[in-house]
From TrEMBL:
GO BP term, pick one: cortisol metabolic process
Binding, heme: C484
Protein name, entry field: Cytochrome P450 27C1
GO CC entries: mitochondrial inner membrane
Molecular function per GO: heme binding; iron ion binding; monooxygenase activity; oxidoreductase activity, acting on paired donors, with incorporation or reduction of molecular oxygen
Family annotation (SUPFAM superfamilies): Cytochrome P450
Keywords assigned by UniProt, alphabetized: Heme, Iron, Metal-binding, Monooxygenase, Oxidoreductase
């Protein structure tokens, strides 16, 4: 087999240290290869995915290819015994290719400065800020050590896209060791969030049949609407208690109860009464256990960062981590969800934080709120209860959610463990490396988003049917086969509740609220309570 011609662009060739050249396939290159020799794909181990249409434009063909040996089969670095074929040479006009660098050459904070930052300066609650700070200091790809863990952080939209597009059939999320260890210790089943490999695939396939598509989740619309009616009733009661101020203090508390009630409605087809005046004791205890879990987020991080051999000397973090999980597992009512999803608390907080941030942003930007409200009145009506099928008429409401999650991505960073060798940002990253994808930083990158600090839901409006405003800079639900399985449910709930809140109230910032900083409590939540005024529209 010999492919005689192959176009290379300047950025396609990356020179390795020993003078050989690694090929980075451009889209044209890949298409060309497919056209001239479809069979060749099977010989390019690393290209197997591409032939199934799952590859990525900038995927690197990690071959140690000699520029002078076109047509020769050579071993591919980073593939399991695959061979590649040099199909051409860089055009003479091509700029000098870059050298592939080793991880030892990657910049990043030293172990000690990281220890001081995280353990002495409370860095675990400022993970999002540290992401920004480290990106400024070390660039868009840098390495760090957290106790026994070594992490490569990626804060560049295109590199994030490269990593996620290259994923295999069962991507591995990082940082779940503590959860897995706890579950093994106590004999608890692994949930979807922390499962890996074949076990994950099996669970995911079961769930995805039920809740992955917008049209499948539309059937939950009526149930969610009932819960929203209860939420608004509850808000009106609280306002009456507050008297003339019309203020609801710490809105997240109320939105958390709403999230819990609607998840129960959707997933266990039951009502818990979280939005009633009197909450049943078991639900109350469960909510307290969840709060404890989150107040102990720091402990969770310490539990993961302290090596096992140090535990006899510093036992507290691991013991507390187990104690808070034991607390949550006591509640048999919630076991079904715990079993499937692993951490119900995370899911509830994702929804409640997002609702808190979006109402806060609407209150802080009254002009934007007015335009969104006008869209609702114009395209739906001021008192028509929305259904799932109405959402396509309200692109700005959808923009509000996207923009909220861009400014405050509840998961400010995500993890992946590389499953094969890769070259990212000019660095050779071996298989098994833990990556941290810095979504908070890419969401605030002014090379990716114009005026990134501004709340502009209209930036997400499509100009026409072919316009795509998707952007790897902001992927709050993740991307690909391991992305959020509850995305469609969360979107449905949040869109429906935002519409009805805006139909019922004009949302204003309470005088004492001021600017609310974000804080990482595992997820990116408000750093202080958000108090808002909900002024009746009629
Ligand atoms: C605003 C609300 C939410 C946001 C922003 C959000 C975001 C995310 C993100 C970023 C991930 C990780 C994806 C990845 O690694 O690529 C994730 C995973 C997950 N989410 Fe959500 N989520 C939300 C609500 C929900 C809800 C309501 C549910 C359940 C009903 C849910 C269920 C899950 C599950 C089970 C996973 C793990 C998926 C897996 O590992 O296969 N999420 N979510």
């Amino acid at each position: 087999m010999r492919i005689t011609h192959f176009e290379l662009n300047a950025e396609d060739g990356v020179e390795t240290e020993d003078g050989s050249v690694a090929l980075q396939l451009s889209e044209q290159g890949r298409d060309f290869l497919k056209k001239v020799h479809p069979g060749a794909m099977s010989h390019f181990g690393i290209l197997l995915n591409l032939s199934k249409g799952k590859g990525c434009v900038s995927r690197v063909l990690q071959a140690a290819l000699r520029p002078s040996s076109p047509g020769q089969a050579v071993p591919l670095r980073g593939t399991k015994g695959g061979v590649g074929i040099l199909v051409g040479e860089s055009s003479p006009s091509a700029a000098k290719p870059q050298r592939v660098r080793d991880l030892s050459e990657m910049p990043g904070p030293g172990t000690w400065s990281n220890l001081v930052e995280f353990f002495l300066k409370n860095g675990f609650s400022r993970i999002h800020d540290i992401q920004l700070q480290h990106t400024q200091q070390y660039g868009k790809i840098f390495k760090s050590h957290f106790g026994p863990q070594f992490v490569v952080s990626i804060a560049d939209r295109d590199m994030v896209a490269q990593v996620l597009r290259a994923e295999g059939r069962a991507p591995q999320r990082a940082n779940m060791e503590s959860w897995q260890e706890y579950r093994q210790l106590r004999g608890r089943a692994t949930g979807l969030i922390s499962a890996e490999g074949e076990e994950w695939l099996k669970m995911r396939n079961v769930l995805k049949q039920r809740i992955m598509k917008p049209k499948d989740v539309a059937m939950f619309s009526a149930g969610v609407t009932d819960v929203i009616a209860d939420l608004i009733k509850r808000m009106k009661c609280v306002k009456v208690q507050e008297g003339a101020s019309e203020t609801i203090t710490d809105v997240n508390n109320l939105f958390f109860k709403f999230a819990m009630e609607s998840v129960a409605t959707i997933l266990f087809e039951t009502r818990l009464g979280c939005l009633e005046r009197q909450i049943c004791q078991e639900t109350k205890d469960y909510m307290e256990a969840l709060e404890l879990m989150f107040s102990m987020f720091k402990t969770t991080m310490y539990a993961g960062a302290i090596p096992k051999w140090l535990r006899p000397f510093i036992p507290k973090p691991w013991n507390e981590f187990c104690r808070s999980w034991d607390g949550l597992f006591r509640f048999s009512k919630y076991r079904v969800t715990q079993k499937h999803f692993c951490n119900l608390a995370v899911l509830l907080l994702q929804t409640s934080f997002t609702l808190s941030w979006s109402t806060y942003l609407l209150a802080r930007n009254p002009a934007v709120q007015r335009v969104v409200y006008e869209e609702i009145v114009r395209n739906l009506g001021s008192d028509v209860t929305p259904k799932a099928q109405d959402l396509s008429k309200l692109p700005l409401v959808r923009g509000v959610l996207k923009e909220t999650l861009r400014l405050f991505p509840v998961l400010p960073g995500n993890g992946r463990v590389t499953q094969e060798d890769m070259i990212v940002g000019g660095y050779f990253i071996p298989s098994g490396t833990q990556l941290a994808l810095c979504h908070y930083t890419t969401s605030h990158d002014n090379e990716v988003f114009d005026q990134p600090g501004e709340f502009q839901p209209h930036r997400w409006l499509r100009k026409n049917d072919v316009d795509r405003v998707d952007n790897f800079g902001a992927i709050p639900f993740g991307y690909g086969v391991r992305s959020c399985v509850g995305r469609r449910i969360a979107e449905l709930e949040i869109h429906l509740v935002l519409i009805q809140l805006l139909q019922a109230f004009e949302i204003q910032v309470a005088p004492n609220t001021g600017t609310v900083p974000a804080k990482t409590h595992g997820l990116l939540g408000p750093g202080k309570p958000i108090d808002l005024k909900f002024v009746d529209r009629k």
